[in-house]
Description:
By secondary structure, the protein is an alpha/beta fold. It has three domains: 4-276, ANL, N-terminal domain (Rossmann fold, 3-Layer(aba) Sandwich), CATH 3.40.50.12780; 279-467, 3-Layer(aba) Sandwich (Rossmann fold), CATH 3.40.50; 472-651, ANL, C-terminal domain (GMP Synthetase, Chain A, domain 3, 2-Layer Sandwich). It contains 22 helices and 28 strands. The strands form seven sheets. A five-stranded parallel sheet has the order 4-3-5-6-7, with helices on both faces. It has a five-stranded mixed sheet with strand order 12-13-14-15-16. A five-stranded mixed sheet has the order 24-25-26-28-27, sandwiched between helices. Strand 27 and strand 28 form a beta hairpin. The N and C termini lie far apart (72 Å).
Amino acid sequence: MTTTSDLDTFPKYLLRNAKTFAERPAMRHKDMGIWQTWTWSQMLDEVRDYSLGLQAIGMKRGDKVAVVGENRPVLYWTFLAVQALGGVPIPIYADSVADEMAYVLDHAEVRFAVVQDQEQVDKVLSIKDRLPSLETIVYDWERGLGDYDEPFLHHYKDLQEKGSALLPGAEQGWMDGIAKSKGEDLAVMLYTSGTTGKPKGVMLSYDNLVISAKNANTFDNFDETDEIIAYLPLAWVGDHIFSYAQSLTAGYCVCCPESVGTVTENRREIAPTYFFAPPRVFEGLLTDIMVRMEDASALKQKMFHYFLGVASKTGEKILNGESVGLMDRLLYKLGDVLVYGPLKNRLGMTRMKVGYTAGEAIGPEIFRFYRSLGLNLKQLYGQTEACVYITAQPDGEISADTVGTPSPDVEIDIADNGEVLYRSPGVFMGYYKNDDATRETKTKEGWVHTGDAGFIDGDGHLRIIDRAKDVGKLNDGSMFPPKYIENKLKFFPNIKEAVAIGDERDFAAVMLNIDLQSVANWAERNNIVYGSYQELAQHPLVIAMMAEHVDQVNRDLSEEERVAGAQIHRFLVLHKELDADDGELTRTMKVRRSLINERYEPLIEALYDGSTEKFVETEVTFEDGRKGTIKATVKIEDSKVYGREAVREAAE
Length: 652
């Protein structure tokens, strides 16, 4: 009989769930317009046959297996099928270009690659001669692969048939193999996005993942009745925790969308109880709502804005269980019928019990908007090396300015230089084949250097200021926190990305990306004609709009003594979007500062030499891998800076 203490690996949890929650839904997938559902007992059958098939073609304990694709049941089953044999899955970002993928597969010494479709098969085939360890490729989606006759290429269903043919004789041996694995064993390797160099393979044990997942489920009261929509990249630790580890340990259902483009629609159909999204997703959803309201009738617009005012006044108080007057409570209930309810239904959040956002700071207004609708949106702070959870916001202690208190079993310390340190059961085993980096990151006592600067406020909540290594100084000695400035700018829905410059310079300056959807809708409503992204970005009215946003940020900064000296003196709007394919962003959409500083050096120098415009040519990579060049004359604008008293006088 399996006891709770015996449940120390995910295949063991699968066996438990297939028995305890046998007929409950384990996974759903919308395919060809129809939602298909697998119960836990059915999922066990799928995984067992698949795992035996992999074993039949040579997979053995310790083998490394790349998993490449979007959120599809077969790829999640691959994790379990591989782990049941004692292998180690290594998810790869589906949008990685061939060279990025080649580095990870070679570094990890991958023997098997399990991929989604023809595109990913072709990508792996194009680099196979550079991967001496790679022997076998397995694929999920058959379309386009009918004429491929490589002997090392297998459809997963063929493997399931091989495995099924071995039953019932092979089942006990398979179960015995599961029993051999222990909590301290390596469960998965997740490669970091590599903002400053080559990606590092973060080794996470079953103990790391299982304990972190169980603590998270307890913290937010998740159980087998909950549901989540899986749309985050498989290679990101967040998806591995939310859509895999927490699902298996709680027994809740994971729903895979039909495609990346149908996530919002599919979320509306499922109405998950648990939802995670980075701030830009919540910002995009709000932008879409506001754009749609511009096309509504005057009466609907008036009702919408009136009840948003009611929600702003009382929504969060009601959500937090605070005292609210009878009339305000009745008005809020009416607003729920007429506005909030339909809005939540439109967002696919009607049943949302808990929602999280992390990765970047979210604008306070945006954060409060969702909470005012009655949505329990919270913030957390985490890292791959921590199995996500370092801090999270307990119910009733929610603030847009903090990232919460230490998660269960997590200790936090602030170093003398302001860097945030933590240790917990979720702390990673180390970086694969990189002992030096492991020693730099994790101390002998188990403390992990986050690289982030922050402090604990009077309520015991953590506040993050910036990346510790990125916090610099202006030539006059003023603190220069680039990410802090960038996040303030990105609070505006018209700004998609921002890069602040100023370390060891006379003043701070920024380069901005417009949000094409938001600005294009604004342009349409104002009868502004444009022919390209570059033309819209450099339009005088768009630049004037950006100037207003920069001005507001400067006013805000002037009120904060620690960063008042880092107000923005000059800015420009870039002629192209920063792009991961061009190496300017990581696959998790983090800015690669050193590359941007190098690539846009002429524009950066123009910000500081007094130029009012600069002609540039920038190389870009198209989706098919071809290279091209964008030419543009970029305008450069001055910004007003403020003393604290001047801002107060203007406000009065």
